[in-house]
Design brief:
The relative contact order is 0.17. The N and C termini lie far apart (52 Å). It is built from seven helices and 28 strands. The protein is mainly beta and 416 residues long. It is 13% helix and 41% strand. Strands 2-20-19-18-17 form a five-stranded mixed β-sheet, with no helix packed on it. The chain is globular.
Length: 416
């Protein structure tokens, strides 16, 4: 028999400041289709230079900055930097370490890189114990935190950063602060109330958000509570979403603000008492989740560009769809229902489902050389006025070439 705990409000209230003051009632199943020219006004294909040094084929992360494209490649365990015109500039690799993530901070034009030592694997429970009880002050033996600083000669300087204990968990860089994530129950925390998200400065916790009841048998005891954290064009802000919470928050060093409060139909929303229910076993917990397999569990790939929000919605059954929300008229569009046209050179519709990056003026997606080769003849036949650079790209394209970046300009207003 499951028991409801009176701590329910703590499990679901993140302690935030209000921004968007009204709920947005949306049904993803009724999301609209649209022509590409409704949203976009131009497109440009930018091939990333392919050489022996710059070749990649297993992208873990792709970043767009005002001056660079950066690719974290799993196979080579390296970060490759290209100019915004696609020219290969520099490769970063760290011996004995596996690069876990790379971020860009616009304020100082720097890249933050987190790597873990290949010789040490620290289980999650052990990491919890070390974080709460260790007297050590330096954890660089296990984790590396570095800043890469580009210069005018397209080379880079590397600055090693102190490694706090919280780096043993997932860590995100935010304008000189760290955002530390704790997804589950921690038996080494004495307090009954713990926090999923903590803001760290100089190895000290300065703010805590998303409180939860730190007791056995509640959902965080059986499974990590996942968070999505995506960068914005503002170096001092990130978008945050918590599992089973259809709300997107804006996190700054000062506060956590409610940015978008989506209300989806009941069959796509986890019941309110789930987080406060004590389960007798892992089997019972998993059964409670799986019976709601159409429920939206995660909003990811958050790209807030001017009046538009691009995002993906993943259900409990791992089905994922990609959407575009227009805050001007509160309309929701299904990126899987887009019809391409000559404005975007009739490029294949599926590329619009992977818009994950932006700069101040454009949003970006990618297409592999293999996929573009499949479209080559159709693109040439349907587009009589292709730019010379695009014609040259298609004429020389090889299946072993690096991916091609697609730069898309959004219309100033897409309201109808």
């Amino acid at each position: 028999m499951r028991i409801l705990t009176w701590f329910a409000c703590l499990a679901i209230c993140p302690m935030f400041l209000w921004g968007q003051d009204k709920a947005l009632y949306l049904n993803p199943e009724n999301a609209l289709g649209f022509k590409a020219s409704l949203i976009f006004s131009e497109a440009e294909l930018i091939p990333l230079e392919t050489t022996k040094a710059s070749s990649f084929n297993n992208v873990q992360n792709f970043l767009v900055t005002p001056y660079y494209f950066a690719v974290l490649d799993n196979n080579s365990n390296a970060v490759l930097f290209f100019s915004k015109q696609g020219k290969f500039l520099f490769k970063y690799r760290k011996k004995k370490y596996r690069i876990e993530d790379i971020q860009y901070s616009a304020e100082k034009n720097i890249f933050f890189i987190r790597s873990v030592n290949k010789n040490y694997t620290i289980p999650e429970l052990k990491a919890q114990q070390i974080i709460e009880r260790s007297t050590r002050t330096d954890f660089s033996k296990y984790v590396s935190l570095e800043l890469l600083m580009p210069d005018v000669n397209n080379s880079f300087k590397v600055q090693k950063l102190p490694v706090p204990r919280y780096a043993l968990n997932e860590l995100v860089y935010l304008n000189g602060y760290y955002v530390a994530l704790n997804g589950r129950y921690n038996k080494y925390v004495k307090d009954t109330v713990a926090y999923h998200l903590k803001l760290i400065k100089d190895n000290k916790i300065v703010k805590s958000y998303f409180p939860f009841v730190n007791l056995p048998k509640l959902p965080p005891f059986y499974e990590n509570v996942d968070f999505t954290i995506n960068s914005t064009t503002d170096a001092a802000a990130m978008l945050v979403q918590k599992q089973f919470d259809n709300t997107i928050y804006r996190l700054t060093p000062d506060s956590l603000y409610l940015e978008y409060k989506f209300v989806f139909p009941a069959d796509q929303t986890m019941t309110g008492d789930f987080q406060s229910t004590m389960f007798r076993s892992n089997i019972e917990h998993n059964a409670a989740i799986n019976k709601n397999n159409k429920v939206i569990s995660e909003l990811n790939n958050l790209v807030e560009h001017k009046h538009l929000l691009f995002f993906s919605a993943r259900a409990v059954n791992y089905a994922q769809k990609n959407y575009l929300f227009n805050s001007t008229d509160n309309k929701l569009y299904d990126l899987g229902k887009i019809t391409t046209d000559s404005i975007v050179y009739n490029l294949p519709p599926k590329i619009f489902s992977s818009i994950t990056q932006q700069d101040e003026e454009y949003v970006y997606t990618r297409i592999s050389s293999v996929d573009l080769l499949k479209e080559k003849d159709k693109l040439i036949a349907q587009n009589k006025n292709l730019p010379e650079r695009t014609k040259d790209l298609l004429a020389k394209l090889d299946k072993f070439d690096n991916a091609i970046v697609i730069k898309l300009k959004v219309k100033p207003s897409t309201a109808k």
